Amino acid sequence: MRLMTALTILAAGGAAFLGPLAPLAAGTERNGVLESGEAGFRHWSDPSLVFDLAAADADFSDDIFPGSGIPVAGNTGGIRNADIRWWRAYTGRGFTGAALCVTPNSSWAPPPGLRRNILAAHPASTC
Ligand SMILES: [Ca+2]
User: Fold this and answer.
1) Cβ–Cβ < 8 Å for 81, 87
2) pLDDT the model gives residue 16
C-alpha cells in the first residue's frame, strides 16, 4: 500500500512536470475582460475594447472585440500581458510576418507602423 501511494504521487508529479505550458490561473478568454493568465489586445482607439486570449489564435480574421461586433483584424492597438508566460504576436496569419514579444506581466505599445496590424498570437516560454 505504501509503495502504491508513493508511485501514485510520483506519477502525478511526473505528469504535472511534463504537461503543456499552461497559465497559472486562466480567466475566461474572449469575454472582453483581461484576467490573470491572459493576453489582451486593445482596440487601437477605444481602450475599453479588449480581445482577451488564454491560448493561441493563428488568425484574428474571424474574431471580434467581445460585445462590440468590431473586427479584431485591422483594429489592434496595445497589448497587455497579464500572464506568467511570454506572448508572441504576429503581423501575419498563421504566426508569420513580423513577430513581437511581450514579457510576462507587462504592456507593449505598438509603433505607428505596427498599430492595427496584429493578426495572430500565442503564448511562449520565452522569446
Ligand atoms: Ca478574460
Assistant:
1) yes
2) 37
26 Cα–ligand 1 center, Å: 8
Domain CATH number, residue 113 = 2.60.20.10
Ligand 1 mean position, distance from CA 7 (Å): 37
SS3 percent helix, strand, coil of the chain, rounded to 5, is: 15, 30, 55
pLDDT, one tens digit per residue, over 22-49 is 555 668 999 999 999 999 999 999 999 9
In a domain, 117, yes or no: yes
Cα 36 to ligand 1 centroid, rounded to whole Å: 8
- Tell me the CA–centroid distance for residue 93 and ligand 1, in Å: 22
Write down the pTM of the prediction.
0.79
Instruction: Give residue 40 CA to ligand 1 midpoint distance, Å.
Output: 8
Number of domains comprising the chain? 1
In this structure, the dihedral spanned by the alpha carbons of residues 123, 124, 126 and 127, taken in order and rounded to 10 degrees, is -80
79 in a domain, yes or no?
Answer: yes
Please tell me the distance between residue 41's alpha carbon and the centre of ligand 1 in angstroms: 11
Q: Which domain holds residue 46?
A: 29-124
